Amino acid sequence: MPILGIKSLAYKAGNKNILEGFSLTVDPAEVHAVLGTNGTGKSTLAYLIMGCEGYRPLSGEIVFDGKVINDLKVHERATLGITMAWQEPVRFEGISVRDYLALKNRGTDPSQYLEMVGLSPEMYLGRMVDKCLSGGERKRIELASVLALHPKLAILDEPDSGIDMLSTQDIVNVISAFKKNGSSVLLITHREEIVLIADRASQICNGRIVCSGNPEKVAEYYKSRKCFVCDGEVCAYV
Amino acid sequence: MSELDALLKAFGEAGGDKGALASEDTAHLVASGHKLLSMKSVEGLEVDTHETLSGISAKVTVKEDVKMKNPVHLCFGVLHKKGTQKIKMDVKLEKNSSAHFIAHCVFPNAQKVRHIMDAVVEIGEGAEMRYSETHYHGPYGGIEVVPKAVVRIAQNGRYFADFTLIDGRVGALDIDYAVEAGENAVTELTARVFGHANDEIKIKESVVLAGENARGLIKTRVALEDESSAEVTGITEGNAAGARGHVDCMEIVKDKAVAKAIPIVNVTNPLAKVTHEAAIGSVDKRQMETLMAHGLTPEEAVDVIVKGILK
């Protein structure tokens, strides 16, 4: 049984269809990459799964660990074992990295999670999760905090994007750490080379899955610019 | 229990270091209402105090070149439900001296209490003073606190002050601090207050950067809930070449609370630069969702965010 099952999901923003008849599964301990260009609905998918405010499906089901979670709030989904690393993590004044990594595990040593994302505990544990961190540092700390939760499903929204983007090797290391934890990962990206580190991949275009299966095959399809949904117009930006 | 023991108990509960008051090499001054209960001075520090009709008057001088090893502990309070305490402080740090003053003002049973602080502080050339003031006003909100300070910092002097009132009720608070910074002087004023019920908070802090290359920062963090209100005025004047100032005010409001921020920036020298930022609003939605995605309930998430900004 998949840990996550999305069945015929539909979501609109205003009059615009963002997701339509969208279905996808993630198996236990699987890394499933969702590949697509900007504006194709990748982050919306992440917010719908996490249950963010304003993101409720028009129709369809989100099933996690055998339970329909459409009406659950963010923290209720987190309690079930879903968590997320945002594309642009927010800053927090007055919260140290040490406390941030141990929000739900007070008293534990979070050093190992910083090491997993390539940051030195000595240098970072005492720092604040505020404006003094660069975008790349903040992103790594967010990934470390998600690792520290040992989630059943981690949604990683474009960990490879932004000015201080993480390298492919960084992402490989983080994914390995999640796998070692036994977590499933929904990896959202617009870079085809990142897809290759997944167990399975799906390409999204205009809110629909256009290609799914072997990551190499999906990456090739993505590069071919022959998407049947947009006829290459959206995917042509690849 | 003696009045001193009772005040020290409240002092300890408010985060004060009772051990420091017993230490031989640490100066302190403890006053309840208009009674001076305990005092200790150390070498290099001159303290002249006397009781007045409604409070305490103290003249404190740190002698030239003296670097105080341990902080000077001040504990003021009123233990009764009703009462008035007026504190008059004249603090002088002579040339190249340095000292850290830690003040605890405790009013754990206040139902109709008035606490007035009137301070004049002179920071000599090259001297440095740190002043950390923590208040605890108890659970009733029956208190009016009016701290006023006028601070003058001479050339190359440094003055850092922080005011914290985040546990218990506030009552009515009316802070008025004015700092004038001379050439190459540095000052930072920080205030953190958490208002509940019908607490009324007024904070007015003013920094005049009078000397060349003087630097000043006013940082205010206020959280409000229920029907509390706050008005925060941060004034910075840049009057000399190379002066740099910044006013940074953040207020978080919940429920029916009302917040107002008035940053005033006045620059009279074209080579001075003063900036300001003020943010008032409810708890940030993205911060909330991030913490909730970590498994915190909405209430826990708000608590973490508010405690963070007041830290």
Q: How are the secondary structure elements laid out?
A:
The complex is a heterodimer of chains A (238) and B (311).
Chain A: E1 4-13, E2 16-26, E3 31-35, H1 42-50, E4 59-64, E5 67-68, H2 74-80, E6 82-85, H3 97-101, H4 111-116, H5 121-124, H6 135-148, E7 153-157, H7 168-181, E8 184-189, H8 192-195, E9 200-205, E10 208-213, H9 215-224
Parallel strand pairs in A: 3-8, 3-9, 6-7, 7-8
Antiparallel strand pairs in A: 1-2, 1-4, 4-5, 9-10
Chain B: H1 3-13, H2 18-22, E1 28-32, E2 35-40, E3 45-51, E4 55-62, E5 72-77, E6 82-93, E7 98-106, E8 112-123, E9 128-136, E10 143-153, E11 158-165, E12 172-181, E13 186-195, E14 200-209, E15 215-224, E16 229-238, E17 244-253, E18 258-267, E19 273-281, H3 285-293, H4 298-310
Parallel strand pairs in B: 1-5, 4-6, 5-7, 6-8, 7-9, 8-10, 9-11, 10-12, 11-13, 12-14, 13-15, 14-16, 15-17, 16-18, 17-19
Antiparallel strand pairs in B: 1-2, 3-4
Helix pairs in contact in B: 3-4
Total DSSP E strands of chain B: 19
Overall geometric form of chain A = globular
User: What is the helix fraction of residues of chain A, given as a range?
Assistant: 25-40%
Strand line-up across the major sheet of chain A = 6-7-8-3-9-10
Poorly predicted runs of chain B: none
Question: How much is the radius of gyration of chain A in Å?
Answer: 17 Å
* Class from secondary-structure proportions of chain A: alpha/beta
Biggest sheet details of chain A: 6 strands, mixed
Largest sheet of chain B: 10 strands, mixed
Spatial order of the strands forming the largest sheet of chain B: 2-1-5-7-9-11-13-15-17-19
Assembly status: heterodimer
Judged by helices, strands and strand pairing, the structural class of chain B is: mainly beta
> Which whole number gives the mean pLDDT of chain B?
95
> Distance N terminus to C terminus of chain B?
34 Å
Total helical elements of chain B: 4
Helix content of chain B: 10-25%
SSE string of chain A: EEEHEEHEHHHHEHEHEEH
**Gyration radius of chain B, rounded:** 20 Å
